[in-house]
Amino acid sequence: MHVFVTGATGWIGTAVVGELLGAGHEVTGLARSDAAALKLAKAGARIRRGDLDDLDGLRDGALDAQAVIHLGNKHDWGNPAENNRTERAAIETMAGALAGTDRPFVLAGALAGLVRGRPAVETDVSPAVGPDSMRGGGENLALEYADKGVRVVSVRFAPSVHGAGDPGFLASLTAAARQHGVSAYLGDGDAAWSAVHRPAAARLVRLAVEGAPAGSRVHAVAEEAVTTREIAEAIGRAFDLPVVSVAPENAVEHFGFLGRFFGLDMSASNAHTRDLLGWTPSGPTLVEDIEAGAYA
């Protein structure tokens, strides 16, 4: 099928584009710069110039394709209201364009804030509702279109989609460790994050767009729970740094923006996802990737 992808040159998007092309699909990627366009061209994808604020372009991209994968996000941590506004407008535009077609609309979801005290499962409904909630309540907004003739699927990504070159949360943790000369965790370090190797996550996205039922929530999770202390200890071994605890009240001072949620528990099960799509995550664990130098 012909798939329109936003965020096509991002960390996850690049892997998803490669996975789709490798499986014989055609891909058009949204590119907001010459560098992004060149990257897509080299991969063998088509190019649609524009960004997430170009709603006419998003609508046309969705209408021209047989499926949409929405991975783009402004990631403007200093302006969450703008992030939320953009996310909702993009979802309403693209999912609205697909209404009545039964075509797939796969979007990136998150595990943060779903539940407390246990790993999240796929049937857990996100409490984020409305434009002022996390990510603008995008998952719930998108799932409303499952009743409007769109095959909506939310892929909830682990907080660590890891691998060599990862620019995300783990890169920020290792940067903080090198800056301060210690690898740190918050409090007792019992908070746990789920994790998944990037190629495995990309494979799940492809399986979701190919066959997940409308209204599905699937978890891009390989390891259910890796404690923040285990993460800090792996970084300590990789960079030969001492490992210490940082008091929660000093989290932002030590970790920067990441300190606001490094101590949150973001663990999740993948049992339903594996059964639904026949997905078997593979690749190194998060600790193995850290120790092998993926964040050097």
Strand content: 15-25%
* Rg on CA atoms, Å: 19 Å
Strand order of the largest sheet: 3-2-1-4-5-6-10
The total domain count is 2
Count of DSSP H/I helices: 11
Share of helical residues: 25-40%
CATH architecture of the largest domain: 3-Layer(aba) Sandwich
For CATH, the homologous superfamily of the largest domain is named as: NAD(P)-binding Rossmann-like Domain
Overall, the morphology is: globular
Distance between the termini: 38 Å
What letter string, H or E per element, gives the SSE order?
Answer: EHEHEHEHEHEEHEEHEEHEHHH
Protein name: UDP-glucose 4-epimerase (EC)
EC number: 5.1.3.2
Pfam family, one: Epimerase
Organism: Amycolatopsis camponoti
List keywords for this structure.
296 residues; alpha/beta; Rossmann fold; UDP-galactose 4-epimerase, domain 1; 7-stranded parallel beta sheet; 3-stranded mixed beta sheet; 11 helices; 38% helix
Q: Could you characterize what this model shows?
A:
- The strands form 3 sheets. The chain has a 7-stranded parallel β-sheet with strand order 3-2-1-4-5-6-10, with helices on both faces. A 3-stranded mixed β-sheet has the order 7-9-11.
- 38% of the residues lie in helices and 20% in strands.
- The protein has 11 helices and 12 strands.
- The chain has 2 domains: 2-159 and 196-222, NAD(P)-binding Rossmann-like Domain (Rossmann fold); 167-193 and 224-268 and 279-291, UDP-galactose 4-epimerase, domain 1.
- The radius of gyration is 19 Å and the shape is globular.
- With 296 residues, the protein is an alpha/beta fold.
